[in-house]
Write a structure and sequence with these properties.
12% of the residues lie in helices and 52% in strands. By secondary structure, it is mostly beta strands. The protein has a single domain, classed as Porin, CATH 2.40.160. The protein has an eight-stranded antiparallel beta barrel. A hairpin with a 2-residue loop joins strand 1 and strand 2. The radius of gyration is 16 Å and the shape is elongated.
């Protein structure tokens, strides 16, 4: 029930009130919730424009609710947190989408793995919109992640609010 309320609140905030990627010097700031097998949490990301269709950024996430292991142990702080550096190709204008929309595939290098993501942003005003993003690990730093190592080495889905600063 908590997950449903959290997701509903984020969607409600997102629909209350943003221009998509503009190019060099553009800064995007996303805040949202991530949903994955064994836990859900919050995430924050920031992207900085490099050129007309490229950006780099940073992502940090923390699992608020995470499942216990078979022995009843709860994950500790270090098991719940992840941080990544990312690179995006912003393709909204390549696909000739409306200026308010952006599609951005990319790669990320994090504390737990090397991965890829695909995201979509829609801006309602010049500075506010919503985003959704899915990410997968391509290569985990541990050859066979077990226990809580699996928490940040799996498919993840993010949804939330996006701000153009």
């Amino acid at each position: 029930m908590k997950k449903f309320i959290t997701l509903s609140l984020l969607l409600a905030v997102g629909f209350v009130n943003a221009q998509a990627f503009k190019g060099k010097g553009d800064v995007k700031f996303d805040v949202g919730t991530n949903i994955q097998n064994g836990g859900s949490g919050i995430g924050i990301s920031s992207d900085f424009g490099l050129g007309e269709n490229m950006s780099y950024g940073f992502v940090a996430s923390y699992l608020l609710s995470a499942s216990s292991d078979d022995l009843g142990n709860k994950p500790e702080f270090g098991d719940r947190i992840d941080a990544k550096f990312r690179f995006n190709a912003n393709l909204g204008n390549v696909f000739q989408l409306d200026k308010k929309m952006d599609i951005y595939p990319g790669l990320d290098l994090g504390l737990r793995n090397f991965g890829a993501h695909l995201g979509f942003r829609y801006f309602f005003t010049e500075g506010f919109g919503i985003f959704t993003e899915a990410g997968i690990p391509i290569a985990s730093y541990k050859t066979n992640p077990i226990g809580f190592d699996k928490l940040n080495n799996q498919f993840v889905f993010n949804i939330g609010a996006s701000f153009n600063l």
